[in-house]
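Lab notebook: predicted structure, single chain.

Context: the supervisor wants predicted structures on file for every construct in the current expression panel, including those that have not yet been purified. This is the next one on the list. No modifications to the sequence; it matches the entry in the shared construct table.
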Amino acid sequence: MSKSLQELPCVILCGGKSSRMGEDKALLPFSSYTSLAQYQVERLKPYFKSVQLSSKTNKFDFHCDIIYDTEKISSPLIALKTIFNTLEDEKVFIMTVDTPFVSLGTIGKLYASSKNFDITVAQSLRTHNLCGVFSKSILEKIVEMVDDDFHKIGALLKRVNTSYVKFDDENEFLNLNTQDEYKLALKYYKSDEIEIMVTNTGMSILNNWLSSLTEENQSTLFKENCEKYVLFNLESKLRNNRLVLSNDEALVLFEWLGNFNDEDRTEYYNNENIEQLLYDLECSLESTLVCVFSPDYKVIVTNARTNLNKMMLTQ
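Prediction complete. Output recorded below exactly as produced.
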């Protein structure tokens, strides 16, 4: 990631009417937290300069920083106007409270792509108008539109210099607008297994690389038996070019890949494609494992290692 998110404030929009949900979605329980708003704040605050909520009132049951939107009209443009009139920062990461699966990798890519643009937003099968980096340079245009009583966020994107960054995973941008979508999100969060794309060629490259590692290499690279177990059993998890892993296996693999890719491992490469393959695997897991952002992430990984080690003893 070329730019540090620690330079950037994040504001989570919590002022929607939630008409299709039938209740305030910002206050819906999520994960181990009493509200979706609290979950979003806790998962994001380690990475940003600051994390604040945009809301008309303090409706939350936890301590949080709020940017109060005091105008009677509810619209994204009103919220953006208030945010830029409150913060001194030139750029702000904006997202809605009802998108709990947007990953750190996605946010980092959006920020890294935001240079020379007024707005940089995510785009998968559709454009996600309120998931991206917004620059203070748009404030004058926002004021002009609000004065004309024109509140369409899509129209704002068309009137300024906007970059649309492509992403493949539509599930990452799931909006919780209805009770069915909320139930789906809870199921997705608690899923017992995940799937990521890996081609047969990629698996062949990975297996050849693993086979080439000496005992000394293995003792250096694999600190725990569960790490070695997961890596050497990946081929058996391949289903039609997709790796199907338990959450525990995925977590251990993701943690190992992160530690491996953070170091200079040139001496271990025997194939020019292995470095890129391992990096791609890490990115795929990061965008799929929703608990990567959880404040309890380290505990979750420790539990995953314990579970796998126990399972190995029974085999």
